[in-house]
Amino acid sequence: MKRNIDLLRLLLLRQAGATDVDLAIFTEEQITYNSYLLIKLGFVKGFYVKDAHGIDSTVINGLTQHGQDFLEFARNDADWKKLKAVADATNKQPASRLRQVFRLLFAR
Hints:
This protein is α+β, with helices and mostly antiparallel strands. It has helices at residues 5-15, 28-41, 65-75, 77-89, 95-107, and strands spanning 44-51, 54-63.
């Protein structure tokens, strides 16, 4: 399974209360995995259940301060383009590396 930066953004927007978020193009497996990444990145409060085959399910209970910071940055189109470029460049890096990069970008 692969991190999908656009899906991460949509999941955070949905958590923030956006009603126009359409996740229909994503599989349940993609949504679950990227929800898991949001938890591991510290962008949302929640928990996940692993089984022998990987991540079985996730429950998200709300945004953290880091999630709110990410979302604030991601709402602006110019900032979102920068963020996507960084995410694309670090796609093979661990989630912790992506979190470090985001923190540097948020420092403005």
